[in-house]
Amino acid sequence: MRKLTLLLCALLAGISLAVAQTSISGTVLTAEDDEPVIGASILVKGTNASTITDNDGKFSIKIPEGAGRTLVITYIGMERQEVFARNGMVVKLTSSDQALDDVVVVGYQTIRKEAKTGSIATVKGDDLASIPETSVDKMLSGKMAGVSVSSTNGQPGSAATIRVRGTSSIGAGSDPLYVVDGIPVESGNTGALSNSMNAIAMINASDIASVTVLKDAAAASIYGSRAANGVILITTKSGEAGKSKITARARYGVTTLANDNDFGMANLQEYIQYQRDARINAGYDVDNPASEYYFPLSLAAKGGTNWMKELTRNGSLQEYELIASGGTGKTTYYTSLSYNKTEGIVPTVGFEKMQVRANLDTELNKWLKVGTRINAGYMKVSDVQNSLLGDSGLAPSNPFYSGMALAPTMPAYNEDGSYNFDLPFVFNINPLAAIKGSDKYDKQYKFNGTAYLEWKPIKQLTFRTNNSVEYAYTNSRQFSPSFINKTSFGASLNTADVQYRLLTTSNTVTYDDLFNDVHSLNIMLGQEANTYESSHNQAISYHVNEQRPYHSVGVSVEDQTAYDGLTQTAMVSFFGVAEYSYDGRYYIKGSLRTDGSSKFGPDRRWGTFWAASASWNIHNEAFMQDIKNVLNVLKLRYSYGVNGNDNIAAYAHYGLYSDIVYNGITGQLPSQLQNRKLTWETNKTHNIGVDFRLFDRLSGSIDWYTRRTEDMLIASPLPYTTGFSSQAQNVGQIRNSGIEVQLDADIFNTNDFKWSAGVNFAANRSKVLELAPGQDFIGTSLRYVVGEQLYTYWLYDYAGVNPQNGNALWRNEEGLLTENSQEARRINAGSPEPLWTGGFNTELSWKGLSLGIQLEARYGNKVLNQDRSLFESDGYYGDQNIWKGALNYWKQPGDMNVLPKPVYNNSSNSMQTSTRYLEDGSYLRIKDITLAYNLPSKWTKKALMSGVRIYASALNLYTFHNMNYWDPEHGTTGATVISYPMTRSMIVGVDITF
Question: How high does pLDDT run on average in the chain?
């Protein structure tokens, strides 16, 4: 019996051991085309037992003793599945709608988020498409930590200024590089005579799948010499195989002048009293009809003119889109057609765009794939003429200057309804007549086309070639009637034809393999080259026929001037990236790129840039598994790298000559000194970051960085004995350092109710470490000063008003008070750089109803309100109108906390640029609110529609600020003179999907 018992125990133990070691094998394939899924995660539910699939999609896993037989199978970009474990099982995974949340585009590759080692930020295209802006650069405002978006004006079609982690250069550009579908493209203003023709505006936001910003050297260094200011990667949508989908969109809105601080000009009665006091303070008799300065109170009886009201209007915007996408077999397509027309808040000002896109992908066989990305269209920017042949904010024909400057006593029209030209303060130019009688526009025709071929001879190896052409032709016209230019010029016509062509070829080979289920290796080698050519032809004619305003009609040769020019640049690059990971826990990455550019001197034309980075997925460690349901993700990142900046003029290193007329003879003289050693400006960046996710609800990233710009491209001063005042050299250093925080939370996520929120915060500190040898600062009022922030205001020290006589007071070099403005000292008055920037967004949805809110904030920046110096000049500008705040002036001895007394034609220079006009530019803006409703499918199906969404949006709904101006946003340098103000938009729209 004892032997039988021992035998049974041994048998049971063997069976238990066999069960404990049960091994299950199987295969994971894609549902679409039965391709193996490499690297899919296989987990025995309720245990730590896991593995991943091999290169053939196969796996083998042992089920622990006592565990259930449920396997959890996941892969980035595919739907999670829970299946019963059995030998020989085949699991097919379908694509997930959350693919964009799981993968990101970095450089020339797409990687899983868990594999990232650099600092990047991503926004989905669908989060941008509903924002009623004319270009995607403005849509990014407040969306990402460390990505600052600002504008100097609100004109339709204008470009925004984007800074990634501060401004990194003085002499070279600080704008990021834009890359669309893997190809670098032109950005910024590409117009001719208009105030702004934004190249990025040609991209339709509805066509965008994602926007990724590469912020640190590890992420951006693969772009080498052009990555110093960050890289913005725009990926457009592709079609999906299956049923075709057609979407029609339409929206309409009204725009108005944004004025949330009740800024405005003096009315008739206020203006009359101000002018009377100013004349009396100057010693004139304002009640004597015989006096030249007669200004009686009875002027108020004639009624006044609100010039701002006369010169502005409610603008409008309308936009229509038609999108078709789908695919059959191995071919997918995505096409779109859009039209946008925006009318500005000033008559004749507007923006118009027609655009078409066609994205096509075809898999010829299992190893060969081809495709195209084509975007083409037409843009027109209609503008107002600000001066005779250029743009000056103080031109009488500038509606915003004239609207604020013209006195309310001056009528816009004569009694017979004709325009009143008796306006001596603005040279007798009626701005209403100037707006409607002038003609100024840029028309641009643009084409972007890319074709690619991808060859995959074996699973691990991929060859890809991208070849692109970008071409734009701009036709510009600016006509001014004779009453603007007066008799010296008569009617004038300025026309220009500008075109540019950018050819790019990019070729890569990538090896990607997985060894022993835990070792992953990715190596990419590449070559890229581009050539850029732009040309312009400009003609100017005076005394043209106003009935037939063309150059060839009745214009003498003496009244015609012609200009033309040609610019050419080229660059060749070679690069490589290597990345290794172990067991989904440890990642290391290195990149190297060398560029040769025609912009630099022949002695130092080539530059080499590199980066190294590493990350640790702590959450995948065994010791973290017990708390993984709480701390789902914990990643630590570090990177260091060197990027370059080549954003300078095409011929900066050459010795140049310019034309000169001397004693009636035309000749040439040297105008620029050659520098054969001129080379790249470099940025060296450290970045430490941590990514986390808690309770499957709260995700976040925290980054600290420091970036040093060296060998800056600066016009270095030279002794005048050389015959030149300066030479382009590599001198000086700047440092930017800061911290960034990004948090996103899924607060509620049920079938009926969802609530998500996100917040981002960034604080950047800059410092000028060094300028040219012997140079302590550059600039006058806005300076670059060694030892200070990059931008620093050095202004005359205004000290208020003498309460006894109403005169302006200043502090001299000794800190003592003086009424002599010439003795005023300059002081460091602050910086236009904010102490921090941030954004907040939230979306609530209940069944078919949703509400989205976005805020943006900026704190601690100073703004030099130079417009106040024009309309708070203490009488310097004579009959000019004033803003309402200027009415708080000194009237009697003892008055405190007031402005200086006005004196007609004041010569005391009390309105000089000083701390008096420096204001706090902090603000909190309700950037966008969108209320939407998705009609129930049971309704839409009856109308043969798959979905209908109706919505209402408010853009720039309200801004909390303390500035004495229409709006507090004044660009990166914090100073603007009479620019097009920001606007508020109210929009309704509908999206219909078939």
Answer: 89
Tokens of 957: 């709904």
CB count within 10 Å of CB 512 equals: 17
Residue 1 pLDDT > 70 = no
In terms of average pLDDT, the best of 223-232, 392-401, 850-859 is 850-859
Residue reference for tokens 């096509």: 360
Helix (H, G, I), strand (E, B) or coil at 680: coil
> Which residues, including other chains, have CB under 8 Å from residue 179's CB and lie 6 or more apart?
185, 223, 231, 232, 233, 234
Query: Closest by alpha carbon to 917, among 804, 806, 817, 808?
Result: 808
What tokens were used for 108?
A: 């020339």
Q: Give SS3 for 382.
A: strand
What's the mean pLDDT in 512-538?
92
Amino acid 376 reads: A
Q: What's the token pair of residue 92?
A: 């097919």
Q: Per residue in 873-900, is it b (16+ CB within 10 Å) or e — as a string?
A: bbbbbebbbbbeebbebbeeeebeeebb
Distances (CA, A) of 58 to 27, 37, 61, 90, 92: 4, 8, 10, 9, 12
For residue 222, what pLDDT is reported?
Answer: 84
Amino acid identity at 390: G
Instruction: Give the DSSP H/E element, type plus range, for residue 99.
Output: helix 99-102
Q: Is the dihedral of CA 255, 256, 257, 258 positive or negative?
A: negative
Supply φ then ψ for residue 918, to 5 degrees. -90, 125
DSSP classification of residue 913: S
Widest CA span of the chain, in angstroms?
Answer: 141
Count CB-CB contacts under 10 A for residue 521: 14
Is-contact 600 680, C-beta < 8 A? Answer: yes
CA–CA separation, 946 vs 609, rounded Å?
50
d(CA 655, CA 600): 12
Write the CB contacts of 10 (distance below 8 Å, at least 6 apart in sequence). Answer: none
505-521: pLDDT as tens digits: 999 999 999 888 889 99
CA dihedral 545, 548, 550, 552 (to 10 degrees): -80
CB atoms within 10 A of CB 510: 19
Confirm if 658 and 181 have CB atoms less than 8 A apart.
Answer: no
Phi then psi dihedrals of residue 35, to 5 deg: -80, 145
User: What's the pLDDT at 836?
Assistant: 95
DSSP string, 311-357: H---EEEEEEEEEEEEEETTEEEEEEEEEEEEE-SSTT-EEEEEEEE
Query: 761, 713 in Cβ contact below 8 A?
Result: no
The confidence score (pLDDT) of residue 389 equals 35
Q: How far apart are CA 321 and CA 354, in angstroms?
A: 10
- Taken in order 816, 819, 821, 822, is the CA torsion positive or negative? negative
Where residue 555 falls among pLDDT bands split at 50, 70, 90?
low
Percent helix, strand and coil across the chain, each to the nearest 5:
15, 50, 35
Identify the three-state secondary structure at position 688.
strand
Q: H helices then E strands: how many in the chain?
A: 12, 51
Residue-by-residue DSSP string for 147-168: EEEE-S---TTPPPEEEESS--
Q: Which residue has the higher pLDDT, 891 or 34?
A: 891
Which residue type is seen at 743? L
Q: How is 582-615 classified by DSSP, letter by letter?
A: ETTTEEEEEEEEEEEETTS-TTS-EEEEEEEEEE
Rg, C-alpha atoms of the chain? 33
Strands (E), 771-904: 777-779, 782-785, 792-796, 798-801, 808-811, 817-818, 826-830, 836-846, 849-859, 862-864
Task: Tell me how far apart the alpha carbons of residues 577 and 526 are, in angstroms, rounded to a whole number.
Answer: 9
Is the whole model's pTM more than 0.85, yes or no?
yes
